Write a sequence for this structure.
């Protein structure tokens, strides 16, 4: 890790995008049309008049009734285009299906087993309408919540769009989360309906999603119906009166469905993400601003055009999938790849083969995957023709310069600029990101998107240059989250109370002498495991829920491939034998409680954990010990001897 930081501090290389690409880019053309000479003039105009910029882009979308006000900013509450009448689905689907993109392919789907399906905008439109009508028939109304628990199959975007079309609020739960995690999220959302599937394949293994759901469904009191997609046609238990197959439900449904005319500020979805406590945060996004933000970044960051074949490898269960597999690309009328499978299955050439097969032009993935493929070696991408690629993207965690260079050379053939996009579930859209016209430094996410002011502050709120500090955002942006679902207090406390009227990201960043941002990771108790946000508290509470465990402390252990791995220190009940077997049992327990992504890589048994006098576990000290760093001052500890305990456990 410290080698990595060292490399970041000394990275001096600069890579310029090809001239032709710059000339042809959406952003360059847009600037030319407005007589804007260069990047600094663009930023200046956007800073002087951010509403001018967003108004221009919002005008590219369809409004049922125009807005009269662009932004109302009463920190920490922003409203964008608030009196406009709008529905994101009209923009993502209806207008394409009724226009010249009618027979354009929206999604090319490929399953892990090699099955393929292609859906045009018109296909998608009709499926969405049928499901929307069916949902209405089940009594789903504007504002009702629907939980969606599906793998990466076309029914997933169809379900999201069908909800949004009728003004219902979707809450997608990643299909890699297991029963307890699903339950917690569905209870918090108060969902009436769950949409799930029988099963799917991962690494050739059958994952039975409906069976998993069945273990908790009776504990979610608000659920009235479970809709089951027969994806693999495996056997499932169907409860009479509650469970219904997707195909049966859609039989005979009308292929037209009126799109609900909504206010721009109406809620589109709730997406749960990890917070510093064990309870996930329900991040709330709206129709209007979110549409404008995701569309604009598709256009200017990914430079999307009608002849592109675009592929974002993120699962739709995460924000990256919501914004850049579903809404952004569809609003832009793009053709996207949807892949339901492991990236290195059946061999490490899978993704590169798919890029070649479909002629992918824009490819967006996570550093953890880049590092994994680095390990497999150049041979795999070299076996495939990747010359269709024009632009690359990276998201989810800092990309170390070595991985950046490997990606740039071996995947992008030194001709594709890499958009290292920094953003969050809360921000909804790219915040700190290059544009295709930007000179790039490997490992830096470049600068804030036009109109946005970001900064790095010390504890007293002073701007820092050249040193690490709190990464903050000082101006509102259209796709920002509006609140945390049913938890206004936490919204204010988590994000807006450290610095007045300034959004605290929870990340540590550094701004260099050229104004480039370098993101260094989280500053709170959130782990980033292979680009996935996991709260230490959530894993701890899963461990403690095991009958043999008294207490647990979870910290991140730096890992070359995954960024971080999960390390857990566990205190067992008296008289329980700390065996190797028990470690396996606890690992499996966490897997079952949260999901495979939260499984600890290391478990150590201890008799005591270092705590402050007020009883707070000192994860900082545990982590220092774990990675062999100086633990610093332990005088504030109630039990300094516990630190030596850790050593023994390792
Ligand atoms: C991290 C994912 C460095 C960061 C879109 C952030 C990044 C968290 C980058 C959000 C990047 C995301 N460089 N770090 N380009 N992108 N992160 O909510 O720590 O799942 O706070 O959203 O991922 O994770 P989330």
């Amino acid at each position: 890790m410290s080698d990595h930081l060292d490399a970041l501090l000394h990275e001096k290389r600069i890579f310029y995008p090809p001239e032709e690409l710059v000339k042809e880019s959406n952003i360059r053309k847009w600037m030319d049309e407005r007589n804007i000479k260069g990047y600094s003039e663009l930023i200046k105009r956007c800073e002087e008049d951010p509403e001018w910029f967003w108004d221009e882009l919002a005008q590219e979308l369809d409004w049922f009734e125009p807005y009269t006000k662009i932004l109302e900013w009463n920190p920490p509450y922003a409203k964008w285009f608030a009196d406009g009448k709008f529905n994101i689905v009209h923009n993502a689907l209806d207008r394409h299906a009724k226009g010249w993109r009618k027979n354009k392919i929206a999604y090319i789907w490929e399953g892990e087993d090699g099955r393929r399906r292609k859906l045009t905008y018109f296909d998608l439109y009709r499926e969405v309408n049928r499901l929307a009508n069916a949902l209405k028939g089940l009594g789903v109304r504007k504002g009702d919540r629907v939980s969606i628990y599906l793998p990466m199959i076309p029914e997933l975007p169809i379900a999201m769009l069908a909800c949004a079309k009728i003004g219902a609020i979707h809450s997608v739960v990643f299909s890699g989360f297991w029963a307890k995690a699903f339950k917690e999220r569905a209870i918090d959302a108060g969902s009436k309906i769950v949409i799930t599937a029988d099963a799917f394949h991962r690494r050739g293994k059958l994952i039975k999603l409906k069976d998993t759901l069945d273990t908790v469904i009776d504990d979610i009191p608000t659920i009235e119906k479970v809709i089951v997609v027969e994806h693999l046609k495996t056997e499932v238990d169907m409860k009479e009166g509650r469970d219904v197959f997707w195909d049966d439900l859609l039989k005979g449904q009308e292929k037209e469905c009126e799109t609900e005319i909504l206010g721009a500020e109406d809620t589109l979805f709730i997406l749960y993400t990890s917070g510093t406590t064990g309870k996930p945060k329900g991040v709330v996004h709206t129709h209007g601003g979110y549409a404008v933000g995701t569309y604009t970044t598709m256009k200017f960051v990914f430079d999307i055009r009608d002849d592109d074949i675009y592929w974002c490898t993120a699962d739709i269960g995460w924000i990256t999938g919501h914004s850049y597999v579903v809404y952004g690309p569809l609003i832009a009328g793009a053709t996207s790849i949807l892949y339901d499978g492991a990236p290195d299955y059946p061999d490490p050439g899978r993704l590169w083969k798919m890029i070649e097969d479909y002629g992918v032009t824009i490819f967006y993935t996570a550093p953890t995957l880049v590092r994994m493929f680095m390990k497999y070696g150049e041979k795999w991408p070299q076996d495939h023709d990747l010359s269709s690629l024009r632009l690359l993207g990276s998201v989810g965690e800092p990309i170390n310069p070595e991985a950046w260079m490997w990606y740039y050379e071996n995947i992008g053939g030194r001709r594709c600029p890499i958009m290292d996009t920094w953003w969050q579930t809360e921000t909804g859209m790219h915040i700190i990101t290059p544009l295709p016209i930007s000179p790039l430094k490997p490992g830096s996410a470049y600068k804030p998107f036009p109109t946005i002011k970001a900064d790095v502050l010390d504890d007293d709120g002073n701007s820092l240059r050249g040193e690490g500090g709190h990464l903050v955002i000082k101006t509102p942006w259209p796709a920002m989250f509006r609140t945390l679902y049913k938890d206004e207090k936490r919204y204010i406390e988590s994000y807006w109370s450290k610095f007045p009227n300034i959004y605290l990201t929870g990340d540590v960043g550094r701004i260099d002498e050229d104004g480039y941002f370098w993101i260094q990771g989280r500053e709170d108790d959130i782990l980033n495991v292979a680009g996935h946000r996991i709260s230490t508290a959530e894993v701890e509470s899963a461990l403690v829920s095991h009958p043999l465990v008294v207490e647990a402390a979870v910290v991140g252990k730096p890992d070359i491939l995954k960024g971080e791995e999960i390390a857990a220190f566990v205190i067992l009940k008296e008289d329980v034998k700390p065996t190797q077997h028990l470690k396996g049992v606890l690992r499996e327990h966490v897997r079952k409680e949260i999901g495979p992504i939260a499984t600890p890589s290391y478990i150590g048994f201890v008799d005591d954990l270092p705590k402050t006098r007020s009883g707070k576990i000192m994860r900082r000290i545990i982590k220092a010990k774990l990675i062999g760093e100086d633990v610093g001052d332990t005088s504030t500890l109630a039990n300094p001897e516990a630190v030596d305990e850790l050593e023994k456990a390792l």
Notes: The two ends are 19 Å apart (CA to CA). Residues 546-649 form a domain with the GMP Synthetase; Chain A, domain 3 fold (CATH 3.30.300.30). Residues 273, 318-320, 394-398, 420-425, 445, 505-507, 519, 522, 528, 533 surround WTA (CB under 6 Å).
